[in-house]
Amino acid sequence: MKEINELNLPEDVKYTDDHEWVKMDGDIVTIGITDYAQDQLGEIVFVELPEVEDSFGQGDEFGTVESVKAVSEMYMPLAGEVVEVNAALEDAPELVNTSCYDQGWIMKIKPQNPSDVEALLDKAAYLDTLRG
Amino acid sequence: MTTPTATTGLIFNEPLLWEKSRDGRCGLSIPTSDVPSSPLDATLTTGGPNLPQLSEVDVTRHYTRLSQWNFGVDSGMYPLGSCTMKYNPKTNEVQAARPGFTTAHPMAAEQLTQGAMELMYNLEQDLGEITGMDAVTLQPAAGAHGELTGMLVIHAFHAKNGKQRSKIIIPDTAHGTNPASASLCGYESINIKSGENGILTPEAVAAVMDEDTAGIMITNPNTLGLFEENIQEIADIVHAKGGLVYGDGANMNAIMGIVQPGKIGIDVIHLNLHKTFSTPHGGGGPGSGPIGVVSKLAPFLPSPRISKTDKGYSWQFDCPDTIGRMLTFHGHFGILVRAYAYIRTMGKGLKLASQLAVLNANYIKAELRDTLALAYDRPCMHECVFSDKNQQPYHVTTLDMAKRLMDYGFHPPTVYFPLVVQGAIMIEPTETESKETIDEFIQAFKDIAKEAEETPELLQTAPNLPKVKRMDEVAAARKPCLCG
Amino acid sequence: MRYLPHTQEDITEMLKVTGHSSLEDLFSSIPESCRLKGDLDLPDALTEWELNDHMEGLAANMAATKVFIGAGSYRHHIPSALNYLLSRSEFATAYTPYQPEISQGTLQGIYEFQSMITEILGMDVATASHYDCGTALAEAMLIALKKKKKTKKVAVSALVHPHHRQIINTYLSPSGYELIEIPYNPDGTTDLSVLDAMEDVAAVAVQSPNFFGVIEDLTKVRAAADAKKALMVVSFTEALSYGLLKNPGSFGANLVCGEGQSFGISQSFGGPGLGILTGTKKLMRDLPGRLVGRAKDKDGKDGFVLTLSTREQHIRREKASSNICSNNGLNAMAAGMYLAFAGKKGLHELAVLNHDKAVFLKQTLEGAGFTAPFDTPFFNEFVLKAPPGFQARRKQLETEKGILAGLPLECYYPDLKDHYLFCATEVLSRQDIENLAKEVRP
User: Fold this and answer.
1) CB B460: neighbour CB atoms within 10 A?
2) If exposure means fewest CB atoms within 10 Å of the residue's CB, which of B38, C56, C388, C440 is most exposed?
3) What is the pLDDT of residues C279-312, one digit of tens each?
4) Domains annotated on chain C, with CATH
5) ipTM (interface predicted TM)
């Protein structure tokens, strides 16, 4: 497993303490799991995705990521409606391991209150939570 | 190093059934028809599924070869913790195969099935005596099914008393089935930690027990192989708030004739006949999971119940408070026959079986404590739990040691369970292993620990002798191929 | 005791190592107040030979001779080679194949079972087994309710085995779920028209052949399920019927569960049987219980492993969809063997023979004063209305000759007074059937 200083934590995304990242692009938010989360889980074998048009509140469970021997829930960083899911993960869940901020994104949502993004953690604050 | 018992033999490759198929072969003797043909309407039928076509010889050789790739209790020591892989007596198989039993129809009239009913009645009595419980049902099909039955009984008890509760206390040393069973009854699991010595404290239970809590699910001896010494006090705390104590009897093999759970505050217990009472595990089942209850819970047991009158044995369908039916018929009768044969063969000797099971585990604990890190240094019952802490400096894990044991001719112990011990190695030798076999097992573990220091790659690449090496479980789960 | 290998010297030496003074001393961590005083009150131990006598006595007190009922438990011939192979202790005395390197026999055998079951039922995925049909069906209802979260009800045909409906009720009621029964038509099929007026349901479940032995029209069941946006669930108790009938998968069933006892497993007073649970690929991750999949070892050699285990209780704990752990694996192995012996030709011919025997039994009994309430195609079971006096005659046959002449239906279906469910399989000869007719003729 990676040491904290080996983690890839980009500056242009926001983080949650449940180890999701979000990236704002116009009025659409892309969501994925962090390098830390994918590293802890190990080789990912399945990603359970929500359906397009599903709506969730902030903190709701919206899907799961599975390795061979563990399941981890994913929670909504902010409330919103699903507009797109990463269909490529159905056949290639390993993208979450190899490219968690790019090809391994999980879903895109239309947030209820786009300004909620501001309240999420930046890189430094997320690093603090990892250091405990 | 002693010579390991495992070696290579002549092992055959064997393709899948359909790869051996040849059109026109059949391995079944089809009775000649002595009645007129009356075809069904063609819109309803097909020519039958496309199954492989093989002769009796083909099929016999196929399964014989497959069997040779398997390791069973009859092959060697199988010290899987929490699974009680004791010897499965062969006479049990003979008894269960008696035509009077095998051909019995479950819905036949009572007077035609008195023998089977007498056996079931006697077995209920025997299991009631062993567990100290007032009433027993044999209907549940397996341990987890017994557990669900027990939880449903608890649920029904609270419903009958007018107020359903919403929570259930589950210690961190519980079997994984416990929380799953509880949630099937709509109970929320309240997880509590065992104390530093691996034992549950009355304080921890008192802190969460309230009048909205249905009770506690407790395994005793627990999954660390330790006896929950505070059980009576814990039961008192739970009872005082109107709750019930569920006992997971998976580890009953440690205490037959020594403790009767029904007499120390446990209200419901399930037994695994395929563990404690010597019936074979069958590569995953069928098992049997009877439950015993104290008298106030007897009305809630699954129906029908069996009863004995001066006219013989009969089924009681009139059970107004019953949780209902758990299985289509009367339980896994074939397994019940085997367990009954075992109990009749052992008699009061069951106590000696438990004593020797505990002796074997303590002996292994004493002999391996300088080789492997002991999780909790306390007197153990029928199993002992170590970890891979001592081997970590050599980058050797529990899994590596487990796999290497195969090369030495032993089935690995249970690994990575219980979850409260990191890298757990849980060894349950059972009473049917002799001192010589156990000495060989201990020596094997010592040799492996030495290898871990000197040639760790031997362990990391193990096993080497079996037909296949470590499997790529990641690829198997990413692209599941579940039928051919 | 022949199962306990310890000599007195062994015990003494081992106690010395553990530091205990006696066997009793091993239990010193158990508080005195928890200990049993004295011995268990159990009968004295029997020798192997005494046990044989005792058990033979019990087995002999089982008096049925000719059985004309099925209702979820069927008497079929079992090849001698099957029991011989099944008793190989490498299969019988192994645990769940968690260590694939030394469990390839069980794993390949179960993989072959899964494959043949999907072929027979026309489904994508079959699990490694469940306890029996009733519990598998209850699990199927829980899957449907989980998939359609806003719904609390499932619609189940009144012609699903009465015991299976009881199990579903037991499983569902603590969670506040409800089983709504779909009544039946005068022709012995499920009356799906009542679904129109019914509220939202998560599943529409029928048994086919149903409890009356009648073959249901699964096209209509699919349409009814679609109209309700519900899962179509099909169950069966006589697995052999799918050696002849169109399979439920071909009608678009989402979940199919059944009893596999007919595939080489003895009746054994009702258990252990074989629960079959199958689904479409879409529902693969919702199926409870173990699944065997193909895999390669690190040298690239083909083999098998238990896979998708994150669905199971030991990982998902309280979030698992089911608590099942032990299944009926050895019976799945038996079924695999049976299907391998029978093969395409054997299973089909045997199914045809079962149907022919049942038709002959029906016609013969009709000649003896019985009448048929339904004129609908059936497989090897059917319902007949008995002539006056049969009830007493049937009782007499049972007690005096050990003949089981039909199952009375009134206790399950109060409007079916004097109606009986009959079954014929390949084990009954023409002579047996004609003798029965002679015995029951008023």
Assistant:
1) 17
2) C388
3) 999 999 999 999 999 999 999 999 999 999 887 7
4) 66-77+345-440 (3.90.1150.10), 80-338 (3.40.640.10)
5) 0.97
